[in-house]
Design a protein that fits this description.
Helix content: 25-40%
CATH topology of the largest domain: Rossmann fold
Strand order of the largest sheet: 6-7-8-3-9-10-12-11
CATH architecture of the largest domain: 3-Layer(aba) Sandwich
CATH superfamily of the largest domain: P-loop containing nucleotide triphosphate hydrolases
Number of helices: 9
CATH class of the largest domain: Alpha Beta
Structural class: alpha/beta
Length: about 325
């Protein structure tokens, strides 16, 4: 496949498991299946949003993709390079092209270092600039995220939450990446600031031809920024498709429940809320069949749902769902891009 045609990022059958230990010798008594066979691609210039409840594995999948935590099995390809097979030095060089914007702008910056030091560090590690040239790159990075050059001399405690997140974005972009993982970049910010950061990320994507993996809880924001959406549940992707299709014609009951939970800005709007019974199963407890079947409100579920693990199958062009029943297409949700 020609380099211009293949996706920038390709993840196939990714598994991440963490051992459960007990006793003074730490004998393993089981495994937490945090990510259980996730597959997706991210074409160049697109934004794939990874959404789902807390604990569904979306952040773990992203960190395994970047090799910040070890993957148990599977493959991750970045521009044709097998990321999981790289040795330390080639991995260090590749990481310049794959950056991360952290969720918490408070803990992701070292309080003992100035803003300029935080941004300059990546330039020095990757030997991109030094001395006055590095200082110029720091000022340029600050300007691109809407901060004045004098912010380089300030410490994180002197900044607001929105300003700290702008610094985090500047730090990621200073080394010239192609792919950026945005791990809930606005969830810790005031609502009035969230729109500014989202617009900034979109402007930077356009100006620098960036590709995003956007992790989020807020589906209203996802509808605004995403090209495609992958819905995760219990460590698996249960629905994947173009943003317009997923939001306007959701195939999975779980996706419909997530969308119905989004608050409408119109106080007069009336929407039905799909309340799911029970809680998400524990990733430390293996479950036979579809992991969603104990909470599934679909009246058509039967004994087959308790024994068959549904694969992610294409139900309509480009729109995938993991359900052994033919999904019921609902168009009643007044929500979408």
């Amino acid at each position: 496949m020609d380099a211009s045609e293949r996706p920038l990022v390709s993840v196939r059958d990714l598994h991440v498991r963490f051992p459960l230990s007990r006793g003074m010798f730490g004998a393993t008594r089981g495994w937490v299946r945090a990510v259980d066979g996730v597959s997706f691609t991210v074409p160049r210039g697109e934004t794939l949003a990874l959404v789902g409840e807390s604990g569904c594995g979306k952040t773990t999948a992203a960190r395994a993709l970047l090799r910040l935590i070890p993957a148990t099995s599977g493959t991750v390809s970045f521009d044709g390079t097998d990321v999981l097979a790289l040795r330390p030095e080639p991995l260090r060089r590749l990481r310049r092209r794959m950056q991360l914007v952290f969720q918490d702008p408070y803990s992701s910056l070292n309080p003992r270092r100035t803003v300029g030091d935080a941004i300059r560090e990546g330039l020095l590690v990757h030997q991109l600039a030094a001395g006055s040239e590095a200082d110029d790159r720091v000022r340029q990075a600050l300007g691109e995220v809407g901060l004045r050059p004098e912010f380089a001399l300030r410490y994180p405690y002197e900044l607001s939450g929105g300003q700290r997140q702008r610094v985090g974005i500047a730090r990621a972009l200073a080394v010239g990446p192609e792919f950026v993982v945005c791990d809930e970049p606005v969830s810790a910010l005031d609502v009035s600031v969230q729109a500014q950061i989202i617009n900034l990320l979109q402007d930077l994507q356009r100006d620098h031809a960036l590709t995003y993996l956007y992790i989020a809880h807020d589906l209203a924001i996802v509808a605004h920024v995403a090209t495609r959406v992958a819905v995760m549940y219990f460590g698996r992707i249960v629905e994947l498709g173009p943003a317009a299709a997923v939001f306007q014609h959701p195939l999975m009951p779980y996706t419909r429940a997530l969308l119905a939970a989004v608050l409408s800005p119109d106080p007069a709007a009336r929407r039905s809320h799909a309340v799911l019974p029970g809680e998400s199963p524990s990733p430390a407890t293996p479950m036979a069949g579809c992991p969603f079947h104990p909470r599934c409100p679909d009246p058509r579920k039967d004994a087959a749902c308790t024994v068959t693990v549904p694969p992610l199958e294409e139900k309509s062009p480009g729109h995938f769902a993991a359900c052994i029943k033919e999904p019921v297409v609902e168009t009643t949700l007044p929500f979408g891009p």
